[in-house]
Amino acid sequence: MIPRLRTNFVTPLPPASFFERLIEAGFSGDIEAGAATRTVFATDNSIYQVEPAAILFPKGAEDLRIVATVLSEPAFRTIAIAPRGGGTGTNGQSLTSGIVVDCSRHMNSILDIDPVRRVARVQAGVVKDQLNRALKPYGLFFAPELSTSNRATIGGMVSTDACGQGSCLYGKTSNHVLGLRIVLVDGSEWWSRPLDAAALAEAAARQDRIGEIHRTVDRIAREKHDRIAEVFPNLNRYMTGYDLAHIRHPDGRFDLNAILCGSEGTLAMIAEAELNLLPLPAHAALINIRYGDFNTALEDARTLAALKVASVETIDETVLKLAKSDIVWNSIARFFPDDAIGPANGINIAEVLADDEDELERKLSEITAAIDTGANARRRGYTVVRNHAEIEAIWSMRKRAVGLLGNVEGPVRPVPFVEDTAVPPENLAAYIREFRALLDGAGLSYGMFGHVDAGVLHVRPALDLTRADHVPLVRNISDAVVALTRKYGGVLWGEHGKGVRSEYVPEFFGDLYPCLQEIKRAFDPENRLNPGKIAAPSNEPLLKIDEVPLRGSVDRVLGNEIRAAFDNAAYCNGNGACFDFDEASPMCPSYKATGDRRFSPKGRAALMREWLRLLAEKGVDPRKEAERARGVNPVFDLARRALNSLNPKNRDDFSHEVRAAMDTCLACKACAGQCPVKVSVPSFRSKFLELYYGRYLRSMKDLLVATIETTLPLMVRMRPAYNLFVGTHVGQKLMHVVGLTALPLLPRLSLAREAARLGVPIATPSRIEALSPDERKRSVIFVPDSFTEHFDPQVAVAAIKLARKMGLSPFLAARHTNGKALHVHGYLGRFERTAGQSAAYFNRLSDSGVPLVGLDPSMTLAYRSEYKSAVGAKLKATVLLPQEWLTANVDRLGTLPSTAEGKSFRLLAHCTERTNAPASLGQWKAVFGRLGIELQTADVGCCGMAGTFGHEARNRAISERLYAMSWKREIEAEDKTNMLMATGYSCRSQVKQIDHKRISHPFEVLNEIIAD
After folding, report:
1. Shared-domain flag, residues 654 and 745
2. Is the pLDDT of residue 209 over 70?
3. Could you tell me which residues come within 8 angstroms of residue 219 by beta carbon, excluding any fewer than 6 positions away?
4. Which CA distances in Å does 792 have to 136, 535, 747, 795?
5. Which of these three, 721, 737, 753, is where a domain ends?
């Protein structure tokens, strides 16, 4: 029996009076100290796990000032805080046992864009790609390019002085910061901008903390000028944070931002930033060069850089192999073909930029000529890409490299702790040889990629930090790499900041380290801002890499079998790809709609890990509990679950917080398709719900949804009564009481009657087996799901008519239960039985060789994912998506006359289809292209309906918010010459519910435009 679970808090909560005092002082943001939120904020993209005491979500600079002012009161002077942006740091920069201050939820406004001066002013929580999307109409962009650009906040970029691809051309974040609005620990505010001598003298004369800061930093810059020049390496990626070498501009101005950029929240809280903008490159191209081995690629990078390309990115064979199984590969595979002797074992991607097309072609001609005639005979070949969308797709693959390294089987996985070293580019190949020898000597596998033009390589050794013998390797390898970088004139942290690795700061800075301590003391005399990072008072230690709690130590209690059984939840590496801000991206709609990190795949995975850990500590194996629960009659078990639900002692059960996060999941499976690590929330969510409702009562809504497929035929017989019920105000109120809303009406058209009228037979195994081989080749079996069959039968009718126009004999599959709703709501025992029955039926049909074709993408793809986990190899049949079947029969379409002249067609694909069948859009384009139609595909996110999600009353507000984010503008833009289509039944249902329009399925459009 699953017990009541309660988290064991590592850090005591701040006194309740602190939160009360914040509100009393006027704090307008959110204050969260619940177990679930604290669990989610205990991790980032590092190997560490530190649970905070609470999380504050300010709404503006005034809230930051209030936080600092209240913390300065005597009663709260022992509380430490740490600012946090996107939460994707690889070194624990924002992890704290104190209070997290997260600016990403509310402080995300672009305040001003001045295209003439090329300056933008933004709040700290603005995401980099969000800013660049707003800048694009002006022909401008914010330059530092990060792999996490779709979720990295400007405040976070400033705090780590972030950079990435193209840094040799564009520099780092600090090179583009014009001003920072900061809030100091005592509550004072300051706009930090470069100061001339007079302005510096005025600031230094102030008798407050701002004056003390300017006096201290100015004195150090003057007194230690020569020593600073000796200690700081001459690198594109010089030491991030407390950058003494760049306090003075070449024109003599004093710039405090050199100290603030990269300071990781140890000096001040950032409220706003003024940023320098650059013109967008007018024309770009990529040269993708293949190599037989990675070392050759590294050695060749210097040759490429000498050809004056804009940037050179490299990827090793490990990452390349992982990319080939990722969602992005389908769109770029042709640019990385296998050679006669096999696939490449390393690639370089050289970027070429130009102001006009002629200049671009001239540069490409010069560079490719040099490559063609070069002495490096080990280059296998190259491709050139000029198309903007294709360039973006290749960069997307490169950006996903960090996450892809986590997409391996088993508990030993690449982890970050020495992943951003930088050495002079001329030393890189020799340095990497020794680095590889170090890891090979330790018997470790690893992946490598990076910015070879800047001498930066990302290296992640594969470890299982739940193993006692692997934990010491973090120390051993780190110490060895520190020595290796110093040998080759480099630094340990070329790009991702210091964080927990701050213990190496004194060694790198040497006798300048006391200067860092002075600066820290001037800004934060009581060491309350992110303590233990970069610089600490003499009497307080810096953090050490093997003394901060590891995620692995938390996971150790689970064991490998439990970790493997819950769909990669325990292996989420924190990369944060699910925090994508873009409303047109299908990734995790519930996070987009709420801005709540708990309601993201990363958040839900963290909660699942904690839930599994709590079970393991009590000696409970959830797999055995699931087996036990399936053997219990739920009706007979009703009393026990009712008592558990009513028992006051169960109110603080951590399981309730996990369930609250799972309730907002749309089960769209975008995470399963788009997460680099393939964390599948719908899969482990179902397992959780099965166990949760083995202890507590279900709602009436769940019971109704679970039986929907079996009761729909009865509802059809009672169509007038059903429509009267769901179509009237009183009926809708009653349905709302049981938790359902926005229910569709049943149409007059009956698929069964129409199929009989058209003479379309039901596909029984005996009937199909009786067909001759030639008849089988000319047959197709359509597999309508219950929802399309009963609520949108026109789609199946159109499919039947289209098949006949193609010269084929259509059949309809017999009525069966797909069971997806059972799976979504955690009725896994019933789902397995249902899946087994349907699989047996489909297998007999499939043995005949007649193709099976589903109508709805979500329901059809369930046969490939949910059925796979339920019945495995027992399902031998493949149910095709419509476009897969049409593509295989595209020659039959090509002979048919089309009446589509003068019309344009635009497709809105189901989000599950886009993310879990990435070839889909290309297949639909090929089908319409055969008819001479250039199909457009709309860039939209989730419609918000997602099966039963949008029909549940508790979810309706989120559902409608998601629809408004991207679908609404597409629907409103439709006109007579621009016909919209949607592949998903739930999507078409949402459009009809909100905008009162009916849009067609592609089967309907194809049937309409193809003449009889």
Report:
1. no
2. yes
3. none
4. 41, 65, 7, 6
5. 737
Report the amino acid identity of residue 164: G
Based on the fold, state whether residues 726 and 583 are members of the same structural domain.
no
- Asked whether residue 770 falls in the same domain as residue 910, the answer is yes
Does 972 map to a domain? yes
**Do residues 863 and 972 share a domain?**
yes
My answer on whether 653 and 748 are in the same domain is no
| Mean per-residue pLDDT of the chain | 92
Are β-strands 413-414 and 456-463 bridged in parallel, bridged antiparallel, or unpaired? antiparallel
- 639, 668, 698: which is the final residue of a domain? 698
- Identity at 503, one-letter amino acid code: E
CATH code for the domain in which residue 477 is found: 3.30.70.2740
Residue 797's alpha-carbon distances to 461, 699, 882, 1008, in angstroms, are 56, 36, 14, 12
Convert 470-483 into a string of H (helix), E (strand) and C (coil). CHHHHHHHHHHHHH
- For helices 1002-1009 and 920-930, angle between their N-to-C axes, nearest 10 degrees: 10
The count of C-alpha atoms lying within 13 angstroms of the C-alpha of 800, restricted to the half-sphere facing its C-beta, is 22
831 with 823: CB under 8 angstroms? yes
Residue 795 included in any domain: yes
Please state the domain count of the chain: 4
pLDDT tens across 811-848, in order?
A: 999 999 999 999 999 999 999 999 999 999 999 999 99
Strand pairing class (283-291; 379-385): antiparallel
Nearest Cα to Cα of residue 927 among 902, 911, 907:
907
Contact 203, 210 (CB under 8 A): yes
> 3-state class of 564 per DSSP?
helix
Q: Which is nearest to 586 in space by CA: 574, 595, 577?
A: 577
Long-range contacts of 512-520 (CB under 8 A, 24+ apart): 512/224, 512/227, 512/228, 512/231, 512/244, 515/220, 515/224, 515/244, 516/242, 518/216, 518/220, 519/213, 519/216, 519/217, 519/220, 519/242, 519/259, 519/267, 520/266, 520/267
Cβ–Cβ < 8 Å for 778, 809: yes
pLDDT tens digits, residue range 153-195?
Answer: 999 999 999 988 887 788 899 999 999 999 999 999 999 999 9
Is 354 inside any structural domain?
A: no
Claim to verify: residue 719 and residue 782 sit in the same structural domain: no
CA proximity to 424, closest of 621, 236, 694: 236
Q: What is the DSSP letter of 646?
A: H
- What is the residue range of 473's domain? 406-497
pTM for the whole thing?
A: 0.94
Residue 591's alpha-carbon distances to 56, 151, 380, 584, in angstroms, are: 18, 12, 44, 13
Same domain, 571 and 677: yes
pLDDT of res. 240: 67
Whole-number Å distance between alpha carbons of 861 and 671: 15
Instruction: Give the model confidence (pLDDT) of 528-577 as tens digits.
Output: 999 999 999 988 999 999 999 999 998 999 999 999 999 889 999 998 99
- Counting every residue written for the chain, the total comes to 1012
> Phi-psi category of 407—alpha, beta or left, where left has phi over 0 and alpha has psi -120 to 50?
beta
Q: What are phi and psi of 181, to 5 degrees?
A: -90, 110
Amino acid code (one letter) for 390 = E
CB 197 within 8 A of CB 221: no
Q: What single-letter amino acid sits at 221?
A: A
Structure tokens at 727: 């179509």
Whether 525 has a pLDDT exceeding 90, the answer reads yes
Q: Taking the mean position of all CA atoms in its chain, how far away is CA 533? A: 27
Residues 730 and 836 in one domain: no
